Amino acid sequence: MTDILREDRDHGITILSLNRPDALNALSPALFMALRAEVDRIAQEIESVGCVILRGEGRSFSAGNDLKAIQAGQKPPSAHFQAETLEAIERLPQPVIAAVQGHCYTGSLELALACDLMITGESAKLADTHGKWGMAPTWGMSQRLPRRIGVVKAKEMMFSGRTISGQEAVELGIANQCVADDDLLSAAIEMAESFTRNSWHTLRADKALINVGQNHFLNDGLIEERENGPGVAPDMNDRIKAGFKR
Q1: Do 64 and 129 contact (CB within 8 A), yes or no?
Q2: φ and ψ at residue 118, rounded to 5 degrees
Q3: DSSP string, 11-31
Q4: How confident is the model at residue 145 (pLDDT cuts 50, 70, 90)?
Q5: Partner residues linked to 117 by β-bridges
Q6: Helix ranges (DSSP H) in 92-199
Q7: pTM (2 decimals)?
Q8: Domains in the chain, please, with CATH?
Q9: pLDDT at residue 214 above 90?
């Protein structure tokens, strides 16, 4: 079973689905490698792909980084492969919509924040739980979340680790709209179609110009986060073990 499903629909819409539903689409190194391959391919398909939807199979978008893989010593191809994959998503010429239902914790929230837009289902639960595990962000949370919702709200979310609903995500400015779970994919497709009816050249230009303006100082912040951050806490493994026993 492939970790990423790709479906090319009419009107230039491509749907990428995280496909580890039995593991709540936990973000293993293998999943990231499959995702990166599709992202790199789509980046070259500007004549056939006008908009991308990123979603998760099953009842959750993703429960976050695969802690079992961390414990098992699984590693990505390079030290910052996951962070660089999120940056590749952000750099895609095409708009990217995250369709989020169920769990969207920590690494998966960072993944969703790398997308341009977000639609949440009513079941969505979003949180930054780095503090729960004694970890520090390296995939962009400290840079993208404040840019999305403002510094004060981002600090409160990150410091507390509290879970917010799909509707609160809209109220905070993380998401564009919240819909019933059964309508989530259709709402994302409807949004994507509203984009691809317009000039794809303009879509790509709009995204590039906005990102250049917004990210003028972002790259320095991303490098600071992953290269000069404090790393994991001494009790990280104990916290992970305790979490699995609950």
Answers
A1: yes
A2: -145, 135
A3: GGEEEEEE--GGGTT-B-HHH
A4: very high
A5: 97
A6: 107-113, 130-133, 141-149, 151-160, 166-172, 184-196
A7: 0.91
A8: 4-182 (3.90.226.10)
A9: no
